[in-house]
Design brief:
It is a single chain. The chain is of the alpha/beta class. It has 8 helices and 12 strands. It has 2 domains: 62 residues, Beta Barrel (Ribosomal Protein L25, Chain P), CATH 2.40.240; 173 residues, Alpha/beta knot (3-Layer(aba) Sandwich), CATH 3.40.1280.10. It has a 7-stranded parallel beta sheet. Strand 6, helix 2 and strand 7 form a beta-alpha-beta unit. The radius of gyration is 21 Å and the shape is elongated. The termini are far apart. The C terminus is likely disordered.
Length: 258
Amino acid sequence: MNLILFDLAETAAPLRRADPRARHLLDVLRRREGDTFDAGLVNGPRGKGTLVALGPDALTLAFTWGDEPPPLPPITLLIGLPRPQTARDLLRDTTTLSLAALHFVLTEKSDPSYAASTLWTTGEWRRHLVAGAAQAFDTRLPEVTWGRPLAAVLAVFTPSATSPPAARLALDNYEAASPLAALLPANVAQPLLLALGPERGWGTTDRALLRAQGFTLAHIGPRPLRVETAALAALAVAHTCRDGMEDRAGSRDRLPPT
């Protein structure tokens, strides 16, 4: 973990030696009394932690906080609810790449029983978000929901008079005519709503619903991919396009006046 994250309430109490963060501090980073390490508050600032005292059962820590990281990009993924192990990977790795929200939805070909997994019922899912953010040296976690029908989630994303409408794209290997990169919004501030089917792909009803809700089908190549691979590839493409647009805008800002 490149950044050790804490909830605010945890910073006022000793850190048990059995906690994975304590083991990482002692066994991986090899910190001793008086040493510092990179720390962050979940959804808050980054800063430095100090190992003040090393007790037999717990570590005493102190913190100084700096600036908060930048906000998450306005990218939302809708993913057909996958198997729990696939969802674990997606929670961690999409958080590492950075996005605003991740909704695991029920589709025509989803297995609704996956929503009853202990991943969701015990709150385990949040741990994977924290691991993903720590890897990326970030503190911000995306919004996450699971188990609602695709139609119910789409109903939430209605146009707003105070914000630009989201670009709506859905990955599909079978009926998409254009590559994802060619359809991404040219304005980096415009929100992106990107949908991916479950392991078995979209059904006919799903495609009809997506089209009725203004989605354009896109692809990232001719090869069928695993859900977790497709999601990360699509997110990487979206970030690359956004970064390129921001770089070009910055270059224009730096041009001397004519």
